[in-house]
UniProtKB/TrEMBL annotation:
Species lineage: Bacteria, Pseudomonadati, Planctomycetota, Planctomycetia, Pirellulales
Family stated for the protein in its record: Belongs to the NAD(P)-dependent epimerase/dehydratase family. SDR39U1 subfamily.
Identification of the protein by name: Epimerase family protein
All copies of domain DUF1731, residue ranges: 252-298
Organism: Mariniblastus fucicola
Entry-linked InterPro entries: DUF1731, Epimerase_deHydtase, NAD(P)-bd_dom_sf, SDR39U1
CDD domains: SDR_a8
Residue ranges of every copy of the NAD-dependent epimerase/dehydratase domain listed in the record: 7-217
């Protein structure tokens, strides 16, 4: 059987570090090929320099595409410039990618394209599956436009899966890399009232869901990538404190985080009781369905 080649954008990042080693053969796009080659984990078989005028050889044979690139939303203050980069590194870049894929002599069968639970805004206590409408705010608009660029491929017969990713928990990156040192020093604490629901997913399950989405022809459209048991921020705080064997007694007030982080702080206080409706219906089997199980894998005892 011939090798299955996957083109991965943003494969040098946190999620890509877990996904790429599980794929058969990969072509990774990156803004810095030399840095990507040196980076442990980004073990692509072939690298393509990413730029706004990326050209992919039309004879390239690609069976699937995973689109993960995007300027981090959690690093740095949300200035107007930063917000422009958040938008264009997802929307303009996905447009460039799709334009190139459409020029291939042989199109891939499937593209799994990242989106985020930020699309849902702040629905409070409501249980949110993939049918919930998008929010009318900055992140909601970014996600809708990002998904629409990816969906242009669906108009040309390519199966498009839009994975609406929750807060990804795992070793070596994402939210845990920021939170664990604080909790280990006894400085962790709930955010505000702590009542807000947090849609989390273990990075092994996110990588697992992406592979599952590539392999399952019946999966298309929006798919919530979050664990079946979202928790309130206060529950997550207590679970992390317990896992590291420390108390978490210092709540972080909203005004302080707004001063430190700018508009991004609002997303930390949004309540998103997201459930993986499509993954449950189509039979994805989670490795970590409870926060305790996820933390057990992540935190060294
Ligand atoms: N981690 C989470 O909790 C989370 C939650 C919701 C959604 N997501 C989404 O899932 C995807 C992967 O997340 P991740 O945590 O793996 O992200 P990450 O670690 O920040 O990696 C993203 C990759 O995108 C590329 N990139 C960054 N800025 C770019 C820009 N301005 N233009 C083009 N490429 C750029 C980088 O690759 P090069 O430097 O090699 O070019 C980087 O390695 C992202 O789209 C993110 O929005 C993640």
């Amino acid at each position: 059987m011939s090798e299955h080649t996957t083109l991965v954008t943003g494969g040098t990042g946190f999620v890509g570090g877990y996904l790429v080693p599980k794929l058969d053969r990969t072509i990774l796009t990156t803004r810095d090929v030399e840095r990507a080659k040196k980076k442990a984990g980004a073990d692509g078989d072939e690298f393509l320099e990413w730029s706004d005028d990326l050209k992919i050889d039309p004879t390239t044979k690609i069976e699937s595409v995973v689109n993960l690139m995007g300027e981090s939303i959690a690093e740095g203050r949300w200035t107007d410039e930063k917000k422009k980069r958040i938008r264009s590194s997802r929307i303009d870049s996905t447009r460039t990618l799709v334009d190139q894929i459409l020029k291939l002599e042989q199109r891939p069968k499937v593209m799994v394209s990242a989106s985020a639970v930020g699309i849902y805004g702040d629905p409070g206590e409501v249980i949110v599956d993939e049918t919930y409408p998008p929010a009318d705010n900055f992140l909601g608009d970014v996600c809708v436009d990002w998904e629409n660029e990816a969906l242009r491929l669906a108009e040309h017969g390519v199966r498009v899966v839009l994975i609406r990713i929750g807060i990804v928990l795992g070793r070596g990156g994402g939210a845990m890399e920021k939170m664990l040192p604080l909790f280990k020093m006894g400085l962790g604490g709930r955010l505000g009232s702590g009542k807000q629901w947090v849609p989390w997913i273990h990075v092994d399950d996110l990588a697992g869901m992406i592979l599952w989405a590539i392999e399952n022809d019946s999966v298309s459209g929006p798919v919530n990538a979050s664990a079946p048991n979202p928790v309130r921020n206060s529950e997550m705080t207590q679970a992390i404190a317990k896992a590291v064997g420390r108390f978490a007694i210092l709540p972080a007030p909203k005004f302080a985080l707004r001063i430190a982080l700018g508009e991004f702080a609002n997303s930390l206080f949004s309540s998103q009781r997201v459930v993986p409706g499509v993954a449950n219906e189509k039979g994805y089997s989670f490795q970590h369905s409870t926060i305790e199980s996820a933390l057990d894998e992540i935190v060294d005892k």
